[in-house]
Amino acid sequence: QGQPVESGGGSVQAGGSLRLSCVVSEFTGDRDCMAWFRQSPGKKHEWVAEIDRAGRIRYQDSVKGRFIISEGNAKNTLDLQMNIVIPDDTAMYYCTIDHRPCWIVRVPSNVAKWGQGTLVNVSS
Fold first, then answer.
1. Which of 22, 23, 36, 95 has the fewest Cβ atoms nearer than 10 Å?
2. Comparing C-alpha atoms, which of 26, 36, 44, 50 is closest to residue 6?
3. How far apart (Å, rounded) are the C-alpha atoms in residues 25 and 90?
4. What is the pLDDT of residues 30-75, one digit of tens each?
C-alpha cells in the first residue's frame, strides 16, 4: 500500500465549504474500506467518515448532514465535501484505503500508513 496524498485544505470561514481529495496511487486489489480521519491540535486521530466495499457510508455524528464522502473519478481516489464548516472542524485531515473491513480500519491505531494530511482551518 502506498502512502496517501491528501489535498484541498485551506482556511475558510465558519459556514463555508471545502472539498478535500486523496489519492493512494500504489494501492492494488480490493478496496474494502475507504475512510477519512482528522487530528485536531493536541488531540489524537479521530475517524470522520467511511465507505465500505458494498458502498455503505457512515459518518461521525458531529459531521452528519454537513460532510459528504465519495469515491473520486480516478482510481484509488477519495473525496470529502465539507459544508457548513464550524471552528471545531479545524484539524489536519487524513485518508486511507485498505483491504481490511471498515470495523477494523475506522480505529485510528489500526491505520497502516498515514499521509502528510491536509490542513483545514475554520475561523469564526
1. 23
2. 36
3. 27
4. 889 999 999 999 999 999 999 999 999 999 999 999 999 999 988 8
